[in-house]
Amino acid sequence: GTVLRLLFKMFSSYSKVGDPRPGQPYKGGNFYAFLPGNKEGQRTAMLLKKAFEHGLTFQIKSCNGEERVTWGLIPHKTSWDGGKARNGYPDAQYLHEVCTVL
């Protein structure tokens, strides 16, 4: 079947009030997520888009003294294969689990 590949471009910026260290610069990056290209995958993509628009997808974490953007609490599949252990597919429960979180 087809694969949906989502790209989130997070630019480097300065953290805001509510982040771990307000006013500190942080490093962005490109983040990819994968979904099956079926109806359920497309519906999940719309929910993930809404979550992103509401600022729920990423967080800023301190890593080796450097602030950087990381995935937040919503689980994303960052690989198309490798199974659940490698954050990929196959994972029969993923779409159900992510929709429950969303």
TrEMBL record:
Residues 6-99 form the Deltex C-terminal domain. It comes from the Eukaryota. Pathway: Protein modification; protein ubiquitination. It catalyses: S-ubiquitinyl-[E2 ubiquitin-conjugating enzyme]-L-cysteine + [acceptor protein]-L-lysine = [E2 ubiquitin-conjugating enzyme]-L-cysteine + N(6)-ubiquitinyl-[acceptor protein]-L-lysine. It is an enzyme of class 2 (transferase). Keywords: Cytoplasm, Ligase, Metal-binding, Transferase, Zinc, Zinc-finger. InterPro entries: Deltex_C, Deltex_C_sf, Deltex_fam. It is found in: Cytoplasm. One of its GO terms (molecular function) is ubiquitin protein ligase activity. Its main location: cytoplasm. GO terms for cellular component: cytoplasm. Its EC number is 2.3.2.27. GO terms for biological process: Notch signaling pathway; protein ubiquitination. Belongs to the Deltex family. PANTHER family: DELTEX-RELATED. This is E3 ubiquitin-protein ligase. It comes from Chordeiles acutipennis (Lesser nighthawk).
